Amino acid sequence: MNMLVILKQTFDTEERITIENGQIINEENVQLIINPYDEYAVEEAVQLKEKHGGEVTVITIGSPEAESALRTALAMGADKAVLIENEDRPLDEYSIAKVLAAAIKDREYDVILGGNMSVDNGAAQVGPRVAEELGIPHISSITKLEIDGESVQVQRDVEGDVEIITSSLPILVTAQQGLNEPRYPSLPGIRKAKNKPFERLSIEDLGVSEDHLRPKSQVLDHYLPPKKEAGRILAGDLKAQVGELVQILCDEEKVVQRGRTA
Fold it and tell me: At residue 30, what are phi and psi to the nearest 5 degrees?
């Protein structure tokens, strides 16, 4: 059984992010890691290999610095890595999916895994888009995965309940927190990772058309969440508190419109 994992290198969620001119997130000197949701995907792929045999290939698009994320995945137990180098070309979820699909379409795979979303933009689009490009089924936000022959059964959280879905191979799934507990790379694993196959490609190598590389969306602004203000405690009898609350919601917070009378 062959597993492919699409992953992304993101900033550590503990890092302090600096925004410049409302457009640039300054990542200079910040710790870069495998996107946490993608770690679940890597771990699940390695577990599938340990149970069913086969190999795990991890793929990412990014700058040469993204090699460190792939090396970490190799140290966790993946067998091969593919880095599609991209320094300055702006890509969105649409164009990223086009590039990844071009890199995957001629490879042998039974299961493609990815994270439910990336912690830097939270779009949760790349995985499903890749599946659509490849013409295979996809199931998002899974918390359990079982494979029996050509049959796949997954579980996913649905608003406090559990949904069980069956499908067939090949398939793409995206991992949600709770799927597993990612392992830490061991020292022997880190040593072995240095000698595992590592393929480098350019976007031009994949023959993706310029129209498909042109982003369909644009980030207009970045901003930090507003600082939380101190809470307010309403006083007086219940009727007075309700009246004051309505006034605050209508006139100050402007989240409720006053009703009109005929």
Answer: -90, 155
For 68, the token pair is: 């460190």
CB 84 within 8 A of CB 99: yes
Residue type, 72: T
Q: Which of 68, 74, 61 is nearest to 6 (CA)?
A: 61
From 60, 70, 59, 47, select the one nearest 1 (Cα to Cα). Answer: 47
The model's pLDDT over 145-188, given as tens digits with 9 standing for 90+, comes to 999 999 999 999 888 889 999 999 999 999 999 999 999 999 99
Sequence-distant (6+) residues with CB within 8 A of 195 are none
Q: What is the pLDDT of residues 88-118, one digit of tens each?
A: 888 999 999 999 999 999 999 999 999 999 8
Tell the CATH superfamily of the 2-213 domain: HUPs (3.40.50.620)
Residue whose C-alpha is closest to residue 7's, from 67, 86, 51, 50: 67
Q: How far apart are CA 29 and CA 23, in angstroms?
A: 18
| Helical segments of 16-109, H only | 36-52, 67-76, 93-104
Residues, the chain, total? 262
| pTM of structure | 0.83
φ/ψ bin of 159: left (φ > 0), alpha (ψ from -120 to 50), beta (otherwise): left
